[in-house]
Specification:
It is built from 18 helices and twelve strands. The protein is of the alpha/beta class. The chain has two domains: about 260 residues, Rossmann fold; about 70 residues, formyl-coa transferase, domain 3.
Length: about 400
C-alpha cells in the first residue's frame, strides 16, 4: 500500500467551498488520493448535505454527508466578516486549488474570484462546477441534477416511447460533472508544471449530460437520426417467474439465431420478416412479445444459464441491497469501513499498489479549524480573537478558547 506521503496528490492543498454532491464528490476523489482538502463551511449549518435527510439526531453526520466527505478537514467561517475573508486569503497563499459549486458570480461577489486569488497566488487553480456554466442564458439559474436531466434531453430518452416521462432517481448529472471537474483539476495541475501558473477551469451539469450523449448527439448532428441503444429490437428487460432479466442481442454474427436457441424458439432469423436489421426494427413488437412469453415460463437463473450457453450478453436485474451483497462487490473490495465500523463505498479506481487511503473520517462541522489555522501560522491569541468576534466557530474552537 502506498504511504500517505507518496500518494499521487500528497502535497496538494485544496480549499473546498463545495456542498451537496457535484463539488464534494470531486474533492473527495482528490482527498482519497492524498490531497489536503480544507472544507469551508457555514457556522451552525455547514454543508447542506449535513442536514439533507432526517437521519441523525444532530443532523450533522448522516450517511449522505459521510458518503461524500471522508479524508477532508472542516473549518467554519462566517464570510460576512472581513476577518473570515482574511483567513481565506491567508490559506490561498499556500494552496493549489480552490473549488466551488455556487451559482455563477458568487465567488466574485465574495471577493474570491480567480482574478483576485491569482493576485495572491499566481499558481492557484480556481475550479468551478455549476448547473449551466459561467456565461449564457441559464448561467443565473440554480443548478440541480433533475433540471440538467430535463434540459439536456436525457429525461426524454426511453427504450420504449410509451413509458411515462420520469425522473432518474440517482444523481447521475452531479456525479458525472464531479468526475469531469476532477479531470479538469488534474489537467490544470499538470499544465501548471509546464507553465508555472494556475488557471480557471469549469464544468457544468448541463454540458456533462450533453457529453454523456456523445454518440447520440453525433448521430443527430450529422444524420438527423435518433440513436437509441436501449430501443434495439433484440435488447430488452424481460420478466421471469421470479424476477427480471436484461438481454442484449448484439456484437454477434447472428444474435437472433442464438437468442432463439437459448429460448427454444424456431430460428426466426431465417424468416424474411426478420432478415435485416431494418426488418427487425419494423417487427420489434412481435419479437419482444415472443421473447416475453418465453421468459415468463421459467426462473431468472434458468434463463441466464440458457443465454450464457449461447454467449449472449445478459444479467439479472438486482436491487441495490442485492448489488451491495454481490460476490463481485466483495471481491472488488467496493465496501470499506470508516472509524467505528461504519460501512461506505470506497473508490472505484484500482491501482497497484493501491493509492487510495482513508486517512480520517468525515469531519465534524468546524472541528479542524484551530489546527488548520495553527498550520497557517496563526497564534493561539489570534485564533481566540477570531472565535470571540464570530469569524470562526466550531465546537472544538469554542471549547479551546
Amino acid at each position: 500500500m502506498t504511504s500517505p506521503d507518496t500518494q499521487p496528490l500528497s502535497g496538494i492543498k485544496v480549499i473546498d467551498f463545495t456542498q451537496v454532491m457535484l463539488g464534494p464528490c470531486c474533492t473527495q476523489v482528490l482527498a482519497d488520493y492524498g490531497a489536503d482538502v480544507i472544507k469551508i463551511e457555514r457556522p451552525g449549518a455547514g454543508d447542506l448535505s449535513r442536514g439533507s435527510i432526517a437521519d441523525d439526531p444532530d443532523g450533522q453526520n448522516n450517511p449522505v454527508f459521510r458518503s461524500l466527505n471522508r479524508n477532508k478537514r472542516s473549518i467554519a467561517l462566517d464570510m460576512r466578516k472581513d476577518d473570515a475573508k482574511a483567513v481565506i486569503y491567508e490559506l490561498v497563499k499556500t494552496a493549489d486549488v480552490v473549488v466551488n459549486n455556487f451559482r455563477a458570480g458568487v465567488m466574485e461577489r465574495m471577493g474570491f474570484g480567480h482574478e483576485k486569488l491569482s493576485e495572491i497566488n499566481p499558481r492557484i487553480i480556481s475550479a468551478f462546477g455549476s448547473g449551466f456554466g459561467p456565461k449564457g442564458p441559464l448561467s443565473h439559474k440554480g443548478g440541480q441534477d433533475l433540471l440538467a436531466q430535463a434540459l439536456s434531453g436525457v429525461m426524454l430518452r426511453k427504450a420504449d416511447p410509451s413509458l411515462p416521462t420520469s425522473l432518474y432517481p440517482t444523481a447521475l448529472c452531479d456525479y458525472t460533472a464531479g468526475m469531469h471537474l476532477v479531470q479538469a483539476i488534474l489537467l490544470a495541475l499538470m499544465q501548471r508544471e509546464k507553465t508555472g501558473r494556475g488557471q480557471s477551469v469549469s464544468v457544468s451539469l448541463f454540458e456533462s449530460m450533453l457529453a454523456m450523449q456523445i454518440q447520440e448527439a453525433a448521430m443527430w448532428l450529422q444524420r438527423r437520426k435518433d440513436l437509441n441503444w436501449g430501443a434495439f429490437p433484440l435488447t430488452g428487460v424481460f420478466e421471469t417467474t421470479d424476477g427480471w432479466v436484461v438481454m442484449v442481442g448484439a456484437f454477434k454474427a447472428n444474435p437472433l439465431q442464438d437468442i432463439c436457441k437459448a429460448l427454444d424458439l424456431p430460428d426466426l432469423s431465417q424468416e424474411p420478416r426478420f432478415a435485416s436489421f431494418a426488418d427487425k426494427v419494423a417487427h420489434k413488437p412481435e419479437l419482444q412479445r415472443l421473447f416475453s412469453e418465453r421468459f415468463a415460463t421459467n426462473t431468472t437463473e434458468y434463463w441466464l444459464g440458457r443465454l450464457e450457453e449461447q454467449d449472449l450478453l445478459c444479467a439479472p436485474v438486482l436491487t441495490l441491497p442485492q448489488a451491495l451483497d454481490h460476490g463481485q462487490t466483495k471481491v472488488n473490495g467496493s465496501i470499506i469501513e470508516l472509524d467505528g465500523g461504519i460501512p461506505i463505498l470506497g473508490s472505484p479506481l484500482t491501482m497497484d499498489p493501491t493509492a487510495f487511503q482513508v486517512r480520517h473520517a468525515p469531519p465534524e462541522l468546524g472541528g479542524d479549524g484551530r489546527a488548520i489555522l495553527e498550520e497557517a501560522g496563526y497564534s493561539t491569541g489570534e485564533i481566540d480573537r477570531l472565535v470571540e468576534n464570530g469569524a470562526l466557530s466550531g465546537e472544538r474552537q469554542g471549547e479551546a478558547a
